Amino acid sequence: MFQPVDTKVSFPQLEESIIELWKVNQIVEKNLAAGSKPFVFYEGPPTANGRPGLHHAISRIFKDIICRYRSMCGYQIIGRREGWDTHGLPVEIEVEKMLGFRGKPDIERYGIAEFNAKCRQSVWEYIQDWKVFTRRIAYWVSEDAYITYENSYIESLWWIFRQLWERDLLFRDYKVTMHCPRCGTSLSDHEVSLGFQDDVDDPSVWVRFRVQGPSGSGEAHPLAAKLAGASFLAWTTTPWTLPANVALAVKPDAEYALVTLTPQPPRAGEGEQASEGEVIIIAAALVPSVLGEGALVDRTYLGRDLVGLRYENLFEGIPGPGDTVDWDAAYRVIADDFVSLEDGTGIVHITPAYGDLEVGRK
């Protein structure tokens, strides 16, 4: 006979009774062991630096649906186990907040070993919340958890790197990354996106780079004497990168104009104006929009003709510890097709340390 239906059913209590039924009959364990053909599942471990939220429930439910469906199709799910991301910047920042720290120097004064111990303590407190959360949303995974700070996990990663090394798939190189001065560390793209602000007004500056005349050493550029004293005009929305400038890029097939400026009355809010008779080098197509319709072009050169010209650096560079710098390779004009004539001046100030790495390599 049908059992009477309680019209005042408690759904949380009903869920708990089902979970208890699964526990008594070892339903989850039996399901994890069932299946005749393998289906590999990689559980991306959540970072144990805070309590789980609704977005974690959504992502785990999606994963659980796939695994349950494959299990019902006769697959044995390989890798269906708990995992906890237990070290890294998010965990450190959580503990820094708890201790009232403002940066890396505070950690060093506190003691790195003591700080690491606090991080492990914080991680395990949050893991307990995650375990309850995993059980209550009926996310079926084994409790044979992998924990990223344990040696067994770290050694497995070293084993993977060993395989890559033996297959000659590893190499050492430079990469441009965002850097956090507060944390004293590089940031991943994900970490940068967490604090990224849209619609921020970028300050822009127009910068003159004075052409150097022939020097006493080495072979002089054919145009060095003729263009000595003229200035390449560059426009940048990242003026804080100017101390790291090492080159100026032009478009090889574009025409660049030599323009002699006439004095203009200062406009409100503007600083120094160009002096009478000053000579500017700029993409010919952008002369009207940058210097005005009345600007007179003395003559033009192709971008490739300007390659190799040297200019006076804005700042004195400081080599890194142990670095030997070839100064002859810096502060000169290069050419590349990435240079745009849509805006700016057609002359791009190059800083490999801030993102122009590929053109810097070339």
Structural features, described:
It is a single chain. With 362 residues, the chain is α/β, with parallel strands linked by helices. The protein has two domains: 158 residues, Rossmann fold; 134 residues, Valyl/Leucyl/Isoleucyl-tRNA synthetase, editing domain (Isoleucyl-tRNA Synthetase, domain 2, Alpha-Beta Complex). It is 34% helix and 18% strand. The protein has twelve helices and 14 strands. It has a five-stranded mixed sheet. A three-stranded mixed sheet has the order 13-9-14. It has a two-stranded parallel ribbon with strand order 1-2. Strand 1, helix 3 and strand 2 form a beta-alpha-beta unit. Helix 4 packs across helix 6. The termini are far apart.
